[in-house]
Design a protein that fits this description.
With 96 residues, this protein is mostly helical. The protein has helices at residues 8-15, 20-32, 34-38, 42-60, 67-91.
Length: 96
């Protein structure tokens, strides 16, 4: 864990203040989704895949975007994830 991007302090040290904590949180979320993937719930997999593609595209054009624009994108995608989680709980209560 000491030299893992899941460790926010390490991520900030390697990736800098602007993106270290943000990308550490994204890494932790993706790593935590393994249960959903094994259960065959591809909604989560699709959201995280979309998040990775969006992040790649933003960093590919990092000189044209501000850190705030990148953070905003991550927040929007994470909100989408929360909406799906909420739907899953209330449309299939037997899964709780």
């Amino acid at each position: 864990y000491e030299k893992s991007y899941a460790n926010p302090a390490y991520a900030v040290k390697v990736l800098g203040d602007q993106y270290g904590q943000l990308l550490s949180a994204v890494y932790a979320k993706i790593a935590g989704s393994i249960t959903h993937n094994y259960q065959g719930d591809i909604k989560y997999l699709c959201i995280y895949a979309e998040l990775i593609v969006e992040l790649y595209n933003y960093f590919e054009n990092a000189n044209e975007l501000s850190p705030d624009e990148i953070r905003c994108s991550v927040v929007i995608l994470c909100k989408n994830l929360l909406i799906i989680m909420h739907e899953r709980i209330y449309t299939a209560p037997y899964l709780i």
